């Protein structure tokens, strides 16, 4: 039951290296370390909606008003269903840089081809570690079992 207390100060993230010490011929030798990221910040929710015109894909994102930016993201489209993981489909767009927010909102417009279907696209962070600070709230699209859009939903 040993505990390690890590003073975080104002830092939302710190790195901890853990290694074993071995005694080899009266000398203490460290093992190869493993690195663990430690987070102290609250995980912020990022909601988004996607829409498409003939040539453009538009993402409307919203989060807390005090969030200035989110880490780089990518849009992934699956051929048969909504992707559950970033590796479940084809990357159709990457931001390649953090997305800037103003008063809790951001709009991103990108060129796309005709095969892009917003009902089979999800946003994912480029880096897995970014999910420690942000969480996507994915849109749900209402469809009838026969594949047609439900009436009166605006979707």
Secondary structure layout plus pairing:
Blueprint: E1 13-18, E2 21-24, E3 27-30, E4 34-39, E5 44-52, E6 56-62, E7 69-70, E8 73-77, E9 90-94, E10 99-100, E11 105-111, E12 121-125, E13 134-137
Parallel strand pairs: 5-13
Antiparallel strand pairs: 1-4, 2-3, 5-6, 6-11, 7-10, 8-9, 8-12
Describe the structure in your own words:
This protein is mostly beta strands. It has a domain at about 45-135: Sandwich (Immunoglobulin-like). About 0% of the residues lie in helices and about 45% in strands. It contains no helices and 13 strands. It has strands at about 15-20, 20-25, 25-30, 35-40, 45-50, 55-60, 70, 75, 90-95, 100, 105-110, 120-125, 135. It has a 4-stranded mixed β-sheet with strand order 11-6-5-13, with no helix packed on it. It starts with 12 loop residues before the first strand and ends in an 18-residue tail after the last strand. About 15% of the residues are buried. Mean pLDDT is about 85; it is low at about 150-155.
